[in-house]
Amino acid sequence: MTSRNQNLPEPAVGNTFSSAVFPLETMDVPGGTETVLRGGRHLFPLLPTAFAGVRSIGVIGWGPQGRAQARNLRDSLAGTGIRVTVGLRPGSASAADARAHGFTEADGTLGDWLDVTAASDLVILLIADAALAAHHERVFAALKPGATIGLSHGFLLGHLRSLGGGFPGHAVIAVCPKGMGDSVRRLYEQGAEVNGAGINSSFAVHADPDGHAVDRALAWSVALGSPYTFRTTLGSEYLSDIVGERAILLGAVHGLVETLYQHHRIAGADPVTAYERSCESITGPLARIISRDGLRAVRDGLDPAGRDAFDRAYTAAYRPARDLVAEIYDEVADGTELRSVILAEARLTARPMTRIGGSPMWAAGAEVRARRAGRGTAVDPVTAGMFVATMTAQIDEFAERGHPWSEIVNESVIEAVDSLLPYMHARDIAHMVDNCSRTARLGARRWGPRFQAAYQQIALPAADAPADPALVAAFTAHPVHEALSAAAKLRPSVDIAVG
């Protein structure tokens, strides 16, 4: 396909990098190789060396990522002399929970966010995107000379670019876990029993005045428990991350299950069966197959009739999904989507978002989850075809825009099947959308209905026609299968435990 526009990410310098501290590996990907770091607790003794010049780490914020990262860093650095402190804004409702998890004013590990910023060698900014956009100047002004700014999302870079501004003259690094904060903590805890269990992370070095930024970022990722760390750029990260959560990770999957639930109900299915063929099929068997055996295994595991239904659904959904992913990408790249998040902040204070979990389909979820024991859920071929088509559409859009393969497969596939979908399986998709970060929730609510309309009005009617053999052939021979196979070699032999 030809490029839709010129809103390409920064060149991904992340394909290769070197470390003076950590042993690195080379991973074969379509068209070349990428350098990656395989994590694990055996690397913890190297952390003090890699955190060169860092004796104090300030984690600013106690949202899902802050809550997980502060605890992981503290536990990994125990006994090293490197102190982890949580910084919160005055009157923060999160202070009690931070104290409950061992961060207290009494021992100096909990304090005012600007005081913690001023005292820290590495300042990890994990407050909400809109709040960071509003208050970044105060944070920058509080930084001590030589401090490193740490981010887990590139949103602030996009905001600064929209203002024509930039970061101060400090080192700027990012470590971006490819999963929700709850997964970051739960898999880290499981890593005590299975070395390497954790959530994959990308890292970026945006500014490196002292030459130690790469190893500092790698140390942060290792301390979080990441089993697989790859390099990208901060600009490429925020484009892929924000697009992904509006597409296959949240927005598209919500629009898809709403569409398919209604489709099955109209066809005569009872509510529980319709829920099983839409939500349960995606969050259960589809997620497990893709996680363990890759995308192609979904189609290969169907009988001939199921494969025909998969192919028809896949080719009907691919083009409308690709068009929407491209539209989202354009709006993230030109700043429209970021501005919408910032503009919503003041409005939501007076008028909070309603919860999507009130629509009728979600009432069936509790019964489905209650009767799972001893009952397997089959892959619904129409659901599978439309879901895999949307995932492939995002993969193709990211590849066309120049993202590295590690970023493509993590943002489009691995984060979904190893972090988000298992959580949705335990809670349900509506719960996930209603309880994710404000940036993600706004995006899912904006784009989920757009995907739903495309599936209802374009894809489902077209799924009655014969499959497009060219699109099917492109899928079966897709280079993503090679990339996923390479990434699978770095996957720890443990799934996230969601209670």
UniProtKB/TrEMBL annotation:
Binding sites annotated in the UniProt record for Mg(2+) 2: D241
Boundaries of every KARI C-terminal knotted domain copy: 233-375
PROSITE patterns: KARI_C (PS51851), KARI_N (PS51850)
UniProt KW keywords: Amino-acid biosynthesis, Branched-chain amino acid biosynthesis, Isomerase, Magnesium, Metal-binding, Oxidoreductase
GO molecular function, one term: metal ion binding
Entry's Gene Ontology BP terms: isoleucine biosynthetic process; L-valine biosynthetic process
Gene3D superfamilies: N-(1-d-carboxylethyl)-l-norvaline Dehydrogenase, domain 2 (1.10.1040.10), NAD(P)-binding Rossmann-like Domain (3.40.50.720)
Pathway noted in the entry: Amino-acid biosynthesis; L-isoleucine biosynthesis; L-isoleucine from 2-oxobutanoate: step 2/4; Amino-acid biosynthesis; L-valine biosynthesis; L-valine from pyruvate: step 2/4
Cofactor names: Mg(2+)
KARI N-terminal Rossmann domain boundaries: 37-232
InterPro entries registered for this protein in UniProt: 6-PGluconate_DH-like_C_sf, 6PGD_dom2, KARI, KARI_C, KARI_N, NAD(P)-bd_dom_sf
Superkingdom field: Bacteria
Residues that, per the record, bind Mg(2+) 1: D241, E245
Family to which the UniProt record says this protein belongs: Belongs to the ketol-acid reductoisomerase family.
Protein name (Swiss-Prot/TrEMBL): Acetohydroxy-acid isomeroreductase
Native source species: Streptomyces uncialis
